[in-house]
Amino acid sequence: MSPHDRKKRIKARGNSSYRAAVVIHGARDSRYHEEDVVGEGRYVEWGSITKCVTASGILAAGEERLLDLDAPVRSVVPRLARTDCTIRELLRHEGGLLRVPLAMLVRPRRDPYAPVAGRALPERWARPLGERGRYLYSNTGYAVLGEVLDAVTGSWWDWCRQRVLVPRGVPGGTLCPSGRPLAVGLDRRGRPRPPWALSCGPFAPAGGIWSSFAELVEFATSWDEPTPPGWSRRDGIQAVNGATRDSRACIVRSWSQQVTVVVHSLRLGEETDGLALSLLREACREA
Length: 287
Hints:
The chain is of the alpha+beta class. The protein is 30% helix and 15% strand. It has helices spanning 3-13, 50-63, 73-76, 87-91, 139-153, 156-165, 204-207, 213-220, 271-286, and strands spanning 17-24, 27-28, 43-45, 210-212, 232-234, 237-243, 247-254, 259-266.
């Protein structure tokens, strides 16, 4: 489906909005960033794109010999005595930890992160229930990696901000966006819906970062390697995305043609990824 047809279908839905940017050889292409309905200057949620930052922070700590990627987690965080997988396995989503603990799925319509806001990850939630060495996408694993960075650097957030975000053009990245205009969904009465408490607790390293849309674009285009940490690669396309209550962000890139597309949406769901891929293919044809 072409970007034009996707935009028409999105417009027909009437209850969603998005913003898109296409960067070709380091320059924004003015033909593709007319969609500004998410709101200029509003902070957007990164969701699981945050994992790229946490993964990069872990790798930086390994390069500085603050940790051994092949060490068991429990040797770095003694309170997680039953988390016997290695740091490297968590990076690869191969540690056997569930996507989120079962206790967080009991009332899925409510904020699943509210019960642990301002608290440490319960030790029982960090016990592997899946098969080690087998891929199982895990927010819980990245919550644990945040605690690993806390243990070896003093603060996962300060470390990742200084070593990853600021050098990559995101000095305004934050876990505490209060007081800033936010891109959030609206309820049936047209009132802003509060975001999940993802940034306020142990799952922040898995999905808690907010920034301006412009800084998200800066982050997306700052990488000079074929597959950055936390990204996936398939059929010559590198991609990473993240979704929360109403928000979804998607970055797709053709390394060979130096084209990057960033889309952030509200209440658009997986259509966000389809739009990003359509824009990428169109831009690559014309690059």
